[in-house]
Amino acid sequence: MKKLLSQLGIGIILVIVMAATVDLNNPFNYESQTIAPYISKDNTGSNEISDLVATLGRVLFYDKNLSLNNTKACASCHLQEFAFGDTALVSEGFDGGVTGRHSMRLINARFSTEDHFFWDERADSLEMQATMPIQDHIEMGFSGSNGQPDFDSLITKMYTLDYYNPLFEAAFGDTMIDEDRVQKALAQFVRSIQSFDSKFDEGRSQTVDEIVPFPNYTASENNGKDLFLRIPQNGGAGCAGCHRPPEFDIDPNTLNNGIVGIVGNANDIDTTNTKSPTLRDIVNPNGDLNGPLMHNGSVTTLAALMAHYNNVVQVAGNTTLDPRLQGPGGDLQLTPTEQQDLINFLKTLTGSDVYTNEKWSDPFDANGDIDVIPLITAAIEHETEIELSLYPNPVINSMTIQSSEIIRNIEVYDISGKRVFSSDSYHNKQIELDATPWRKGMYLVRLKTIVGEEQVLKFMKR
What we know:
Blueprint: E1 4-7, E2 11-14, E3 21-23, H1 51-62, H2 126-131, H3 151-159, H4 164-172, H5 179-192, H6 199-204, H7 219-229, E4 243-244, E5 249-250, E6 261-262, E7 265-269, H8 302-310, H9 336-347, E8 371-373, E9 388-391, E10 398-414, E11 419-423, E12 428-434, E13 441-449, E14 454-461
Parallel strand pairs: 3-8
Antiparallel strand pairs: 1-2, 4-5, 6-7, 9-10, 10-11, 10-12, 10-13, 13-14
Helix pairs in contact: 1-4, 1-5, 7-9, 8-9
């Protein structure tokens, strides 16, 4: 039990018994983070980042209750300590199954002109991508197929988790939960994850562009940078043609890179993988890879990465190899020293803050508990919990809502999130509603009392 008290113009006093706390009155800075002036690519679109929506996204990202058996979250496959990637070849789903591809690093996902997501670009936006793992029959289980419940069932489940009421209220102005809002919040949190405190950024901030030598680089790192930027016809490696600095995002027109193997299937090929995460933070601050590389995790060292691009082999049946990897681009003939210089340069793209910053960390405690301090808007002293009842339930023709506080507003939503009833003309503690116009199924009632309290109840219409 917790009690929230507020006094006019003074603020709040809160007694908390849970260890993990999200204070909606003092959110982390997600919307106004410093971005270097030389960073120009941005796929945000209309879903601009706000502190409170991204805060909701953080909770959603780490919440294992969003999986069918409460064992997996987005963060289970995208770990902060590995630049929001996974060290496993493939990631384990909620029921022991495994993904068909390696989990891609999510760092700097915002800073790209490529607005499609997943290795094969099957999601048209980050918003669309955000809930696809939740609805995957292997990853999180709300697929709506093969006997699994669908996303509407997850929404019903989320209404039973009391911490989502204040989170959605603060983010969107009311407590309604639907897939669109979940997508927006998750996408905002993921887009907030940024890394621009690398050795590269230090050098770039002291120069006019990437081409000139960086004063903070070693000779090897500067040579590696030069190889990265120059095209093969001029003695370079041509890496920047696909992985474009300073964001080091993938060119949207890129085709596959010659690695077409399928995890667990040596007799077939997959040529559809044309997306790549940024090359930033490909290694951690210690210089170790943040997990295996490529969609099938087949590249496990930077030396192996250099070897692949130094001599790209066109596999039989691969008719969509990127033309930049054919001819000179597929047979670079770099010396061992040049390959090591490239490796040394790639390591300069790693920052440090993103691995430990609390704003991107797990908000739940070790027991999976979380306490949310609501956004304070009311100036009247009150307790957060009111006595509320709805009967009969299931409802046939009419229902009664009874509250210990005077009811001001009532809204009724069907399970898809569509509002079927709304009225703010009440001033009673007991309200009767006619349910005959509504179809059979699950519904949610959202009400506000005269002192500003909000509550959500579920009922079944028969």
